[in-house]
Amino acid sequence: MSTYGGDEVSAIVLDVGSCWTRAGYAGEDTPKAVFPTSYGYIEEEKEIPPDPDTQMEDVIPTSENKPVKSVEKRYIIGDTGVAAWRENMEIKNPLVDGLIQDWDALEKIWDYAFDKSLRIDPKEHPIFVTECAWNTRDIRERLTELAFEKYNSLAFYVAKNPVLSAFAAGRPTAVVMDCGASSTSCVPVVDGYVLKKGIYKQPIAGDFLSEQLLQLLQQKFDINVVPHYMIAKKTSVDPDQPANVEFKERPNTTGSYHKFMQMRIMQEFKESVCQVSEVTYNHSSINTRPMKYFEFPDGFNTSNGSLRFSVPEILFDPRFITQPQDGPNFDTSALLGIPQMIHQSIGVCDIDVRPNLLNNIILTGATTLLPGFADRVNHELSSMNPGPKIKLYAAGNTIERKCSSWLGGSILSSLGTFHQLWISRKEYDDYGRGIVEKKCDN
Amino acid sequence: MSSSSGVDLSEECLEFFQDLKLKKKYKYILYKLDDSYKSIVLEKAVEEATYDDFVSELTSSGPRYAVYDFDYEKPGEGQRSKIAFYSWIPDDSKVKDKMLYASSKDAIRKRLVGVAIEIQGTDLSEVSYEAVLEKASRSN
Predict the structure, then answer these.
(1) For an engineered disulfide with A375, which of A137, A166, A228, A278 has Cβ 3.0 to 4.6 Å away?
(2) CATH number for the segment(s) A12-46+70-164+404-440
(3) Angle at the Cα of A69 (from A66 to A70), degrees rounded to 5?
(4) Tens place of pLDDT per residue across chain A (442 aa)
(5) Is Iron included in the keywords of this UniProt record (chain B) (predicted)?
(6) Which site among B4, B41, B97, B135 would you substitute to test the A interface, given the most A Cβ atoms closer than 10 Å to its Cβ?
(7) Structurally, how many domains does chain B consist of?
(8) Any idea what the Cα angle at residue B41 is, between residues B36 and B44, rounded to 5°?
(9) Structural domain for B65, as ranges
(10) Separation of alpha carbons B1 and A432, rounded Å
(11) Could you tell me if residue B50 is inside a domain?
């Protein structure tokens, strides 16, 4: 393999996804660092010392002149950081619906990626970031500003996830069905450009399934999911027998941390137990499928039957959603199953391009790794579109499936010819942050 | 900008295309990325070949772009000829090649004026005579 400009520094590729942030060097096959996008913070009260210029005798002792207290947030980033129990640590995610909402936290994530994970000086590298298809102009401009103003990077580029995934699958024209942690989206890409009108998305994805599992296990089966951090000692018990466990003293644990750790167990539960029915869901045939065993961190263990199919089924038929016992019900009427999303997304595109899209459906995102997922999408789409040929593409390699947009960005930004596409420092200085709309127009 | 990757097209690619289009000098042309991945270059131009010859040549190596002068019979209207463009990026290619060929397609496709049929091929069935014929018959 030939290498490009050996004397040049490689670009840094950053993909801040809703669950994981991936950071690494352009040209490599896998990101050097993968850490949770969720961050921890502890609010610490700090007293601001009284202004020394103010003479004590001038101060009239009222309640307003008491020492001023300010609340400072201490950020905790990285896998070992957020997963470790700390008093009063809250866990938050800086993205809402794939869009950056919390810029202070995003900067901490970038800092962590540059300083701790990669140990590089961003001044010496071009920075390539990925974005969701529905990212706003304001966010892209703020990202550009951040790269140049705060990090003084050499150059900057932002590219859309589905375009990168489509290219990485060898398909300039495709529908990219991305089912990740926070959202499921369907985006048509034609000749390397997103067709905005065809974007369909909804917040029903991996995290939602985890929440449903947690709720069902607690409500229906009375299983209290106890995360590792609470457990001091456990002894093994027979299946379906109550756990025999000693708890640790964990004062001032926040609800958000507890939930975060419970969700991690549900993640594991999904990966080891859950499955998608390969054909249209049929309760009686699902009941004949073998059960799957799972041991919870506290030692409680049981075999799981229809639950392991009925929860992932939500992705295909939102009527499978279990309504919460307390709190408002989900309105499932506006939600679509994944095959319907794909069908509608293609349906709004030009009639000439539809056969090509149906023939190039890319599945990406970690939730598509559920066994049976691809078979089911294929089954449903074939019965919805009896005529034309349908072809799904799902990378067999899990890294490719989980990080296709990072990987695409890594390859693209390592090309010698990509030089002319970067927003250079000079262009930013000359034209300002609005240049991103012109140069990164994918 | 010519393509999403910044890859460019060598001028000779266009000259050969003009000869196929205007002088009917070639039956098909294969293009590929040069070894430094900087531009798209001519691999070969073939004067006489059947569609099967073309497909077996196209699909025997890694990713390619191709142009084929496609002849077919339009029922009741006689012999027709259309220029078909192929981006051939098989699913078993290396991910780097997929990325490069997919993101550079526009560098060549946009410069070839007069292409009537465009084929995005990832497996044999998509470049079969029947698949291309269907597209040819659908377009005007």
Answers:
(1) A278
(2) 3.30.420.40
(3) 155
(4) 333 344 467 999 999 999 999 999 999 999 999 999 999 999 998 877 666 655 555 555 555 556 677 889 999 999 999 999 999 999 999 999 999 999 999 999 999 999 999 999 999 999 999 999 999 999 999 999 999 999 999 999 999 999 999 999 999 999 999 999 999 999 999 999 999 999 999 999 999 999 999 999 998 888 999 999 999 999 999 999 999 999 999 999 999 999 999 999 999 999 999 999 999 999 999 999 999 999 999 999 999 999 999 999 999 999 999 998 887 888 888 999 999 999 999 999 999 999 999 999 999 999 999 999 999 999 999 999 887 789 999 998 888 899 999 999 999 999 999 999 999 999 999 999 999 999 998 7
(5) no
(6) B4
(7) 1
(8) 125
(9) 8-138
(10) 20
(11) yes
ipTM of the complex: 0.95
Burial A158-183 (b: 16+ CB within 10 A, else e): bbbbbbbbbbbbbbbbbbbbbbbbbb
**Per the domain annotation, does B40 fall within a domain?**
yes
Model confidence, pTM: 0.92
pLDDT given for residue A132 in this prediction? 97
pLDDT at A8: 64
Joined tokens for residue A320: 């499978």
Mind telling me how many Å the CA of A310 is from chain B's nearest CA?
33
Residues of B in contact with A405 (CB under 8 A): none
Q: Does B7 touch chain A (CB under 8 A)?
A: yes
Distance from CA of B44 to the nearest CA of A (A): 22
Interface of chain A toward chain B, CB-CB under 8 angstroms: 2, 29, 163, 166-173, 191-192, 356, 359-360, 389, 391, 393, 400, 407-408, 411-412, 415-421, 442
- Top CATH class, A184-204+336-399: alpha beta
Identify all chain B residues contacting A169, using CB atoms and an 8 Å cutoff.
98, 102
Whether A419 and B91 lie within 8 Å, measured CB to CB: no
Q: Give domain A206-320's CATH architecture.
A: Alpha-Beta Complex (3.90)
CATH number at residue B88: 3.40.20.10
Report if residue B69 sits inside a domain: yes
Contact assignment for B122 to A171 by CB distance below 8 Å:
yes
The domains of chain A are located at: 12-46+70-164+404-440, 184-204+336-399, 206-320
β-pairing verdict for A244-247 and A12-16: unpaired
Examine residue B33 and state whether it is found in any structural domain, yes or no. yes
Domain A12-46+70-164+404-440 and domain A206-320 have a common topology: no
Contacts of B100 in chain A (CB under 8 A): 411, 415
Q: How far is CA A211 from the centre of its chain?
A: 15
**Residues in chain B, total:** 140
Indicate the residue of A170, A412, A417 with minimum beta-carbon distance to B38.
A417
CA distance to partner chain A, nearest, from residue B7 (Å): 6
What string of DSSP letters covers B50-91? -HHHHHHHHTTSS-EEEEEEEEEEETTTEEEEEEEEEEE--T
- At B97-127, the pLDDT tens digits run 999 999 999 999 999 999 999 999 999 999 9
